[in-house]
Write a structure and sequence with these properties.
Length: about 700
């Protein structure tokens, strides 16, 4: 038996995807045979270019694997080539250890040169103002410098990026977009730079660096069978891997725009935390998120990623279900009915009507009660008078606070009389119970005899996905569920995607993430064209970072290319429905969705597609369901966490986005108007970034003020 190891470079994966299915299966078989005995005559292992590290081996009759010998019995597949191409012009193959990142890089120069054709005369080269040394310092692969110097337009640049190492592609893309070398160094190069001096000849050391993104043969089958998620089981960008594997002295946060891999990082983080637990059977790690359907998706993804052994050590709940579980332990709240936020606002409307209170907006009162009073656990009017109202916008004085407190007391009494609790009250009770439990644990441990066993919190580690949607009350509950200490909380979120109006300052809630924050900026889902359009939808608004600071999308980018987004106006809703049906009929019915601002629109679209004999299904609260139709329809809220190759955003008109109720607030409550406008922008941004390849945005009447 051999001790040979064989890995595949991330860039080679792109070539594998383009191969016939039979060849993909042959690659999987080849890796197994090679690991068993690389000297097997059937593999025809040959060294290329004299004493170089480059070898070829037989995959099947028509294809060969090109491999770098890293030393000992370690090999890395860098390309899969047709047999007749492998031995022609061996100087075409260039490989190196990148002196900046320390990662292994491979380039087929002949293929790359074809993407940058020679032109007798034309515009000035795109990168003429940058010296070779500047480009090398930023991480551009040295074998490509001559080609980079020839690039004169965006098409040539993106053609080269298809074959260039990833760091080279990202650096060139940002320079072409107008970033200075200093900005590119800070945002792109520094996060993946090697922590130590790089030995250009030590390929064994390079294999172990995060910048060399590889997988071993045991994981290849998952990649081939499961597509994108199979890839993220094993391939992590160096920045992602550093975040996953780092030990933190306390709570840590990762932010990033849509498609940057925050959820993937969170799942890998859960797996790593479980691995570090040691033997046991308890549910010591909590993985939580806001949406019910996202929680179910996380469970399946974690199972696929790490197997049942890891899943057995993890509790996975959507945050409200977790709060209900805690609040009802020991028969607490027995007999109570739970109502969601929409129903809770209706109860505010009924109370105000009964009290003939015309000056108050029920949505404002609901948010003030849930985010400030419940969120901070304020038990008295005096506490409310002194409370901070971060993120609430409108300043209110003592007299106004007194009036609000009286209304809150009447509202709570009204709920009690109907034997109802809102989900925010449930979360408040859960936070109170967990805080008391944590205090009791601390007291018991401080008074226990020396050497005795200590009581423990509910969890050893907590991982939160879509953190921007949790309320302050949720955070108070989570903070009490885990002892403060190393790796206690890992938080993934993006406030640009806050669509439920929750605002929280983690520092004010006892969750100190200062100095332990990281950003992901490379989108793996959405094309460069869609990304630019979607980012513009956010306007000039400012966005918080969950900790009283500001966040932005600086450096947010994609190396994927696709068609420009399409915008289409219609005179009437009926005409728009006809246009939607025509477009869906023209597209392949695979990974297609239509998102609309309002629920009634989803039903109308489904009815129109049914008339056109197009099989579709409306997404419910739990997602697409087990056997959905190939075309999905839903409100923009329903598409949170999903992705599709092609999307239509329909009904994007003024009065729908933003809604007419929001527009009316501009005169009556300017602060709330600004908050609702931000939320509407976030909703449109989330919906637009579900699209992977192409997107069409349509409206009837007057288009939304958010659109270009």
């Amino acid at each position: 038996m051999s001790d040979a190891t064989l890995r595949m470079l991330d860039k080679a994966y792109d070539e594998v995807l383009k191969l016939p299915r039979a060849v993909k299966g042959a690659i999987y078989d080849f890796q197994h045979k090679f690991r068993e005995n690389p000297e097997s005559p059937g593999l025809q292992l040959k060294q290329l270019k004299g004493n170089s590290r480059l070898y070829s081996a037989r995959v099947n009759l028509d294809y060969r694997a090109l491999m770098l010998h890293a030393g000992n019995q370690d090999y890395v597949i860098v390309a899969i080539k047709p047999r007749q191409e492998v031995y022609d012009n061996l100087d075409r193959y260039a490989y190196q250890i990148n002196p900046v990142s320390g990662g292994i890089e491979f380039v087929d120069l002949v293929t790359a040169e074809a993407a940058v054709p020679e032109e007798p005369a034309g515009p000035a080269p795109l990168f003429v103002q940058y010296s070779d040394q500047t480009l090398l310092d930023l991480g551009v692969a040295e074998p490509l410098l001559a080609l980079v110097a020839k690039i004169t337009n965006e098409d040539e640049l993106h053609g080269l990026m298809s074959y260039a190492p990833q760091l080279t592609s990202e650096v060139l893309l940002e320079l072409s977009a107008g970033k200075t070398p200093e900005e590119v160094m800070e945002q792109i190069t520094a996060p993946v730079a090697a922590a130590e001096d790089v030995d250009a000849d030590d390929y064994q050391a390079a294999l172990d660096r995060p910048a060399t993104v590889t997988t071993e043969d045991g994981a290849l089958q998952a990649i081939l069978e499961e597509g994108d998620f199979g890839r993220w089981k094993v391939f992590l960008h160096p920045t992602q891997r550093k975040i996953v594997e780092r030990n933190y002295s306390g709570p840590a946060r990762v932010s990033g725009g849509p498609g940057t891999g925050k959820t993937i990082v969170a799942l890998h983080r859960v797996s790593k935390l479980v691995e570090q637990l040691g033997p046991g059977t308890g549910k010591d790690v909590l993985l939580t998120t806001f949406n019910t359907n996202l929680a179910a998706d996380l469970r399946q993804r974690l199972l696929d990623l790490s197997g049942p052994e890891v899943l057995d050590r993890v509790d996975i709940f959507n945050i409200d279900k977790l709060a209900v579980k805690v609040a009802t332990e020991g028969n607490g709240g027995a007999g109570r009915r739970w109502i969601n936020d929409a129903k809770a606002v209706e109860e505010w409307e009924h109370l105000l009507a009964e009290q003939d209170e015309r000056q108050w907006d029920p949505h404002f009162l609901h948010d003030e009660w849930t985010q400030v009073i419940l969120g901070q656990g304020l038990a008295t009017r005096a506490e409310y008078f002194k409370a901070r109202r971060a993120g609430r916008g409108q300043r209110i004085g003592r007299e106004t606070r007194a009036a609000i407190w009286r209304l809150v007391e009447r509202y709570v009494k009204r709920l009690d009389e109907q034997n109802m609790w809102t989900l925010r009250q449930v979360a408040e009770r859960a936070a109170l119970l967990e805080t008391e439990r944590a205090e009791n644990i601390a007291h018991a441990n401080s008074t226990a005899p020396q050497g005795g066993s200590e009581l423990r919190h509910r969890y050893q580690h907590i991982v939160v996905d879509e953190a921007q949607d949790l309320s302050p009350t949720h955070w108070r509950m989570l903070r009490a569920m885990v002892a403060e200490g190393p790796n206690d909380m890992f938080i993934a979120g993006d406030t640009h995607q806050r669509i439920y109006g929750q605002y929280a300052s983690l520092g004010q809630l006892g969750i100190n993430i200062r100095g332990r924050s990281a950003r992901l900026t490379l989108s793996y889902r959405t094309t460069h064209e869609i990304l630019g359009m979607a980012a513009a939808l956010l306007g000039e608004e400012e966005w918080d970072d969950l900790d009283d600071g500001n966040d932005d999308l600086t450096g947010y980018r994609s190396v994927l290319r696709g068609p420009q987004p399409t915008f289409q106006a219609y005179p009437t809703w009926e005409a728009e429905l006809d246009g939607i049906a025509e477009q869906i009929a023209a597209w392949p019915h695979e990974s297609v969705a239509i998102a609309v601002p309002e629920r009634w629109m989803a039903e109308a679209v489904a009815k129109r597609l049914n008339k056109a004999e197009i099989d579709s299904s409306v997404i419910g609260p739990d997602g697409p369901g087990e056997n959905p139709a190939p075309v999905h329809i839903g409100t923009m809220y329903r598409f949170k966490g999903l992705e599709y190759k092609r999307m239509i955003l329909a009904g994007v008109a003024d009065g729908a986005l933003p809604g007419s109720r929001v527009v009316e607030l501009k005169q009556t409550d300017p602060a709330r108007y600004r908050a609702e406008i931000k939320r509407a922008r976030s909703l449109l941004f989330v919906a637009a970034t579900r699209a992977r390849d192409s997107i069409l945005i349509s409206w009837h009447g007057k288009k939304s003020r958010f659109l270009p």
